[in-house]
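REQUEST ID: PR-0412
SUBMITTED BY: lab tech R.K.
PRIORITY: routine
TASK: structure prediction, single protein chain
INPUT:
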Amino acid sequence: MIDGPSEFFQNQFDSFVLPSHGKIPEIKFIFYSFREPESPQYITNANFSEWDIEKSGFDATSQTVFIIHGFREIGTLWPKKISKIIAGYGLPNSIGHFDFYVNGGKFQPGCKSIAEHLFDWNVAAIDSTMRFMLGIIDEKGMVDLGTFFSCGHSRACEVFIESIENEACEFWAVECSSWERYLSGQCDDHDTVVMGYHADGFKTLVKDLPERKFFLKTKGYSPYCLL
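STATUS: complete
OUTPUT:
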């Protein structure tokens, strides 16, 4: 599942294809897009539960549905205007049979922090930021801003592709209620499943149960899987 500014993701997915593989499963990607962050259709963590997800064709009762969470905004102090553009990146909610939170589903290793982005912004990005804060941002500006916050978010796609390509290593994830509990070892004796393409083989674990969260660590560079 992917959500974000439509202009940015259109550019990204124009060249996005699944890798060549002997047997590619039938995979359905759900792509949420929105052109105007101020509109009622703008999906955020706050209003997602009120949105009619069934109209999107999302059916958590038939084929296995797994969500890979790469990045979401976590309440960093930012000007209100800037926070609106990154609030749509990622959802904390559990909405699939398996919800995989890669490195906690927040900032990803290998991606720059927001503070680092500030120092790296070029003139075009700064101009786009100012235009956005003044309410006069255009489509190009949305793309400029989105690019700087996409590293962790697009990591979800990258690890999914690797779950198909890299047969030598599997992304084992542990069922846990929170990233903090996972890190402290409190969930070491909980169920473990493989994230990504092979998750379907573990569906019996979540049959007739509420959505469950699974956490795992990865490296900050490809191949991401930890041996």
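NOTES: The chain has a mean pLDDT of 66.
REVIEWED BY: pending
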